[in-house]
Amino acid sequence: MKANIVLLPGDGIGVEVVAETRATLDAVAAQFGHSFSYSEHLIGGCAIDATGTALTQETLDACRAADAVLLGAVGGPKWDNPSASVRPEQGLLALRQGLGLYANLRPIRLFPELIQASPLKAERLADVDILVVRELTGGLYFGKPRLREEVNGRRRAVDTLEYTDEEIQRVVELAFRLAASRRRLVTSVDKANVLESSRLWRTVATEVAARHPEIRIEHQLVDSCAMRLITSAAAFDVIVTENMFGDILTDEAAVLAGSLGLCPSASLGDGTRGVYEPIHGSAPDIAGKGLANPIGTILSAAMLLRHSLRLDKEAAVLERAVAQAIAGGARTADLGGKLSTQGMGEAVRAKLAG
Ligand SMILES: NC(=O)c1ccc[n+]([C@@H]2O[C@H](COP(=O)([O-])OP(=O)(O)OC[C@H]3O[C@@H](n4cnc5c(N)ncnc54)[C@H](O)[C@@H]3O)[C@@H](O)[C@H]2O)c1
Ligand SMILES: CC(C)[C@H](C(=O)O)[C@@H](O)C(=O)O
Ligand SMILES: [Mg+2]
């Protein structure tokens, strides 16, 4: 098949991991006789430097016209001035909102050979297989009012945590549909003991659950959920939660896998369009050194093949190649190894061919 893929490398290690993933997608295409064409566009800090804005209309239009989008990461110290009026992260948020990508799927799967890479005891990691469905276009990230002001000589700032029933319903519904082909348990995570928006979340989640009697629902407060992710992660199947809780819980859950650099995601709306992005950021501490682990982005590309291009077999072959490379001892520095970003990509491609 022919597919038109937009690449948004962004900033920092985003550039490195996307380059390695493109080479890997090319290897998949060659193996199966597909033709993927790429167009690269600016987002984040590099877009601010070139155009003054973090997401240009040109980039957004290209993403709208593409079959799928693969994104690296945005941000970095260069653009971190707290009084700057434009920030790299705004580009990513505008992209998610502009494409209507209200659900971010973040699978947390463990490679048996990497159990030692996690700081947790091996017995706590047995049978861990979690899918976090993070709401992506609502909550604190987008609520209005949002402002900073000075009142009577005091500085004051406001963010707003706002959800409508429709925003909650569509993402929880998706979580239930996904749970149907897994272990049939949805954990809906909120802070309903304190937040009004969480009480609405819990009410709507309960209504959605009533339409899916074959799937169990449990409600869990976010603070104790954070603890249970460490003490009994294997008890979770699908977790569905609001935007910021999902952001924080998934970086925590990445510790189960052994490195943030291993974890992929798919940002989806209605239809097949999606943005595929590792859950990590631009990692300024290691950027430009060839140290970044590209696996999170390569596994995001596998999700791209499956969800946006409907190439299930190719996705499975790519995931198997990653698993075999890791089983064969391929390790970047975050996993205690010596391979460069490129070396890790090559290790995966070697398993593809074999
Ligand atoms: N989706 C995104 O674009 C995204 C996500 C998170 C953070 N950010 C941005 O990234 C910048 C840095 O944020 P941060 O330091 O809090 O988070 P980060 O995810 O960039 O890095 C956290 C730690 O994990 C390590 N790490 C991350 N990815 C890795 C990889 N692939 N291989 C090996 N090690 C890896 C880093 O070296 C660092 O020590 C900020 O500007 C932030 O806004 C962007
Ligand atoms: C960079 C930032 C806007 C982003 C988020 O919070 O969504 C990141 O942390 C992520 O997890 O993709
Ligand atoms: Mg994050």
UniProtKB/TrEMBL annotation:
Enzyme Commission no: 1.1.1.85
Q: Which domain of life is it from?
A: Bacteria
Q: Which residues bind substrate?
A: R96, R106, R134, D223
Ranges where the Isopropylmalate dehydrogenase-like domain occurs: 4-348
Which top EC class is named for this enzyme in its record? oxidoreductase
Q: Which reaction does it catalyse?
A: (2R,3S)-3-isopropylmalate + NAD(+) = 4-methyl-2-oxopentanoate + CO2 + NADH
What GO biological process terms are annotated to this protein in UniProt?
L-leucine biosynthetic process
Residues noted as binding NAD(+) in the record, renumbered to the chain: 76-89, 281-293
Which residues are involved in binding Mg(2+)? D223, D247, D251
Q: In which pathway does it act?
A: Amino-acid biosynthesis; L-leucine biosynthesis; L-leucine from 3-methyl-2-oxobutanoate: step 3/4
GO CC, any one term: cytosol
Q: Name the Gene3D superfamilies for this protein.
A: Isopropylmalate Dehydrogenase
Q: Where is this site: Important for catalysis?
A: Y141, K191
Entry annotated with the keyword Metal-binding: yes
CC cofactor note? Binds 1 Mg(2+) or Mn(2+) ion per subunit.
Entry keywords, A to Z:
Amino-acid biosynthesis, Branched-chain amino acid biosynthesis, Cytoplasm, Leucine biosynthesis, Magnesium, Manganese, Metal-binding, NAD, Oxidoreductase
GO MF annotations for this entry? Answer: 3-isopropylmalate dehydrogenase activity; magnesium ion binding; NAD binding
Task: Give the location in the cell.
Answer: Cytoplasm
Instruction: Give the principal location in a single coarse category.
Output: cytoplasm
Q: Which cofactor does it need?
A: Mn(2+); Mg(2+)
Can you state the subunit structure given in the record?
Homodimer.
Q: Which NCBIfam families match?
A: leuB
Q: What does this protein do?
A: Catalyzes the oxidation of 3-carboxy-2-hydroxy-4-methylpentanoate (3-isopropylmalate) to 3-carboxy-4-methyl-2-oxopentanoate. The product decarboxylates to 4-methyl-2 oxopentanoate.
What family is this protein classified in? Belongs to the isocitrate and isopropylmalate dehydrogenases family. LeuB type 1 subfamily.
Task: Give the protein's recorded name.
Answer: 3-isopropylmalate dehydrogenase
- Species of the source: Sorangium cellulosum (strain So ce56) (Polyangium cellulosum (strain So ce56))
Q: Which gene encodes it?
A: leuB1
